Amino acid sequence: MTILESLSSRALSAPPSGIIEVVQYARGREGLIPLWAGEGDLPSPDFINKAASDALMAGETFYTWQRGIPEMREALADFYRRHFQVSLPIDHFSVTSSGMHAITLCVQAVTAPGDELIYLTPTWPNIVSAVGIGGATPVPLELDFVDGGFKVDINKLEALITPRTKALFINTPSNPTGWTATKQDLADILFVARKHDLWIIADEIYALYHYAGGRAPSFFDVMEEGDRILFANSFSKNWSMTGWRVGWIVGPAEIGNVIGNLIQYSSSGLAQFMQRGAVVALNQGDDFVRKNIERATISRDILCDTLISTNRVETRKPDGALYAFLKVDGITDSRAAAFDIVDKTLVGLAPGTAFGPGGAPFLRACFLRDPNQIREAAGRLADYILKL
């Protein structure tokens, strides 16, 4: 038996990322415009960095609260009062070491080996892998692609439920599709979850990136006390803090100690000096978030208008999130196309094959970047598409 063969089946089943594959192929090329990853081009702002730096230099480097320092959890409660119009005590909040960590802990909390979790696809691939590595079975429900946009069919969702189903994973606004659930969609999904006694894991990381104005509809708008919903979120997108790896969970107070135990045995808590930066982001960062959203709106319009005008791209301006999900006439293998586009245009896109069932014909572009850079990338892509 080789060293590799001696590893656990769970570890060996973790697939390579189809996004990272393209990144590693092209990283560092001069003149490259990278639209493949879900992050913008702005670094974390100075007022957030300074708070973390000051705390670090003040010696806040010791073990800390497993579920987050009280100031951090109170700042999260204030954030939800402002943006979601809900008042929750801090025992509903747990701080995690990234949004991915939050998702993993939510999956661990509500599923066991042999259970099933239904998710909407195309989707961010890490979600599916987190479920599979944990021993549960991810069950895909393909969103319907209609007139350049996506819709969820509630009847198809309910038809997938079996006695082994324990949870639904709902990401809205969606990465990569931009699909944004209506309030009625969320009410219908919640009705199904209640009917079958299921948990919902709600990934609402892009809730503030809602281009119709205001935040996107949330399960907070339709839920009642006692509903089994866990919210996973992250500081990455709103405050340009992708590299910080800071996230959080909102859930019923009754399971707070369970979440705390899962944190203890996975990360043992987020560094306190990093939490100081996150507190300032929550308390003082609304204007920064607003500017990020304004920037994304301009860049979304530039990218989508340019590509739609070729009459070779089937897509719509997304209602939410940070991505254009592009179905290009003449491209049938998006993985091969992503490498070819890098070579011929120096624009980095993520292949739709990385996003699971329903994603193969598409390419994903993240538009949270300088509008001038997006204009250049859109022009290069349009020229490429018109030559196919």
TrEMBL record:
<dbReference type="InterPro" id="IPR050596">
    <property type="entry name" value="AspAT/PAT-like"/>
</dbReference>
<dbReference type="InterPro" id="IPR015422">
    <property type="entry name" value="PyrdxlP-dep_Trfase_small"/>
</dbReference>
<protein>
    <recommendedName>
        <fullName>Aminotransferase</fullName>
        <ecNumber>2.6.1.-</ecNumber>
    </recommendedName>
</protein>
<dbReference type="InterPro" id="IPR015421">
    <property type="entry name" value="PyrdxlP-dep_Trfase_major"/>
</dbReference>
<dbReference type="InterPro" id="IPR015424">
    <property type="entry name" value="PyrdxlP-dep_Trfase"/>
</dbReference>
<keyword id="KW-0663">Pyridoxal phosphate</keyword>
<keyword id="KW-0808">Transferase</keyword>
<comment type="similarity">
    <text>Belongs to the class-I pyridoxal-phosphate-dependent aminotransferase family.</text>
</comment>
<dbReference type="InterPro" id="IPR004838">
    <property type="entry name" value="NHTrfase_class1_PyrdxlP-BS"/>
</dbReference>
<dbReference type="GO" id="GO:0008483">
    <property type="term" value="F:transaminase activity"/>
</dbReference>
<feature type="domain" description="Aminotransferase class I/classII large">
    <location>
        <begin position="38"/>
        <end position="381"/>
    </location>
</feature>
<dbReference type="InterPro" id="IPR004839">
    <property type="entry name" value="Aminotransferase_I/II_large"/>
</dbReference>
<keyword id="KW-0032">Aminotransferase</keyword>
<dbReference type="Pfam" id="PF00155">
    <property type="entry name" value="Aminotran_1_2"/>
</dbReference>
